[in-house]
Amino acid sequence: WNLSVPALYEEALRRGEASVAANGPLVAYTGTHTGRSPNDKFVVDEPSCHDKVWWGDVNKPISTEKFDRLYADMMAYLDGKDLFAVDAYAGADPAHRLPIRVITQFAWHNLFARHMFVAETDPAEHAKHRPEFTVIDAPYFKADPAIHGTRSDCFICLSFARRVVIIGGTSYAGEIKKSIFTVMNYLLPQRDVMPMHCSANTDDHGDTALFFGLSGTGKTTLSSDPARRLIGDDEHGWSPQGVFNFEGGCYAKMIKLSAEAEPQIYSTTQRFGTVLENVVMDPETRVLDFDADTLTENTRGAYPLSFIDNFEVTGQGQHPRNIVMLTADAFGVLPPIAKLTPQAAMYHFLSGYTARLAGTEKGVTEPKATFSTCFGAPFLPLPPNVYAKLLGERIATYQANVWLVNTGWSGGPHGVGKRMKIAHTRAMITAALTGQLNAVTYDVHPIF
């Protein structure tokens, strides 16, 4: 219960769950599931949420009876087994944070959860911690579709009435963090707080910037800027008081990671405490190979924010002056950077165009055009217009500049053109955030 990082290392190694790489990171492999399984995610259809949830392909209903049977069978399976629990918060702002408990079958999953959520450092406050949502994660427990009403033996089931998430049949740790993100996306709009699938950073003057985008578009890389303090790399809330991180760590893509292009993220892979997921490692030397994609393109690293030199300790920032919408266009069509009118900003937020990249979801092997509403449709339990309305109100109230930045291909589509260089994209974003693009001449594109 609330074990330290070294203790979780020891348990993971003793149980054969993971290995230690050169310089100290913990390396684990997830087997069949190397990305999220969106088709296996269900929301319990209960009276308390029936009229609120955006039912359909994203939020597939499961009956209370089927859920109760699945939950009971899962508890029977876990009876007598060693489990690991960590108490933490989703949300850095005390006014809006959610007390949570994560119970896992794997020690390395518990270390992942410890990194991903916000820890309570005050022992007196920790003693008073009472979870308002619990995640129970048992990768080795498999559902029976005929009995439990699932699509396969893998499941991620969320009950708002019982305030619990149960996960089974998958060892991919990302399901833990995204299930709580879904919970926050349900609860916060009802409290006039906009939940966002975005990264955020700030400078010494409190000039905050947001970076919207799906996995693989560069949120983590571009927000980890040596010249600015990182607030967070993936999930945030925008309240009437400002921006706050939901998480206590980062979950970065590791494929083709290099010390030259991404020095801050690379440095986290060379130290004790970082959890690496599906990164190929030499069995003898324990040296990591970040270019290898033999297991998946979706190789990942989880580490606490404190591993980034210039992180924002509070996890909070002022109302953003700039909003960057990232898209990895696989067809070589979108310009490298464009400034959006408020109307165009709302259009791109609701359409959420990008190319879904290989590895981020099970079965995706080639870039594929996709339109993910609000840059986060898989995690939106409420109708998209709820989130769009909140964003529109905040852009109007705080007069934020909105930029569309293409981190995808230039000079032709995927396979013909080349991927934008990180250094070039970072230079353009720096110019936007520092005001260098405020006084330049713009051409209004008739289509975009």
Describe this entry's structure for a reader.
24% of the residues lie in helices and 26% in strands. With 448 residues, the chain is an alpha/beta fold. The strands form six sheets. Strands 10, 11, 12, 13, 14, 20, 21, 22 and 25 form a nine-stranded mixed beta sheet that branches. Strands 4-3-8-9-7-6-5 form a seven-stranded mixed beta sheet, with helices on both faces. Strands 1-2-16-19-15 form a five-stranded mixed beta sheet, covered by helices on one side. It is globular. 48% of the residues are buried. The model has no long low-confidence stretch (mean pLDDT 94).
Separation, N- and C-terminal Cα atoms:
53 Å
Tell me, rounded to a whole number, the average pLDDT: 94
Number of strands: 27
Sequence stretches where pLDDT stays below 50 over 5 or more residues: none
Structure classification: alpha/beta
Identify the overall geometry.
globular
Q: How much of the residues is beta strand, in percent?
A: 25-35%
> What is the number of helices?
11
Largest sheet: number of strands, sense, barrel closure: 9 strands, mixed
- Helical content class: 10-25%
- Overall radius of gyration: 21 Å
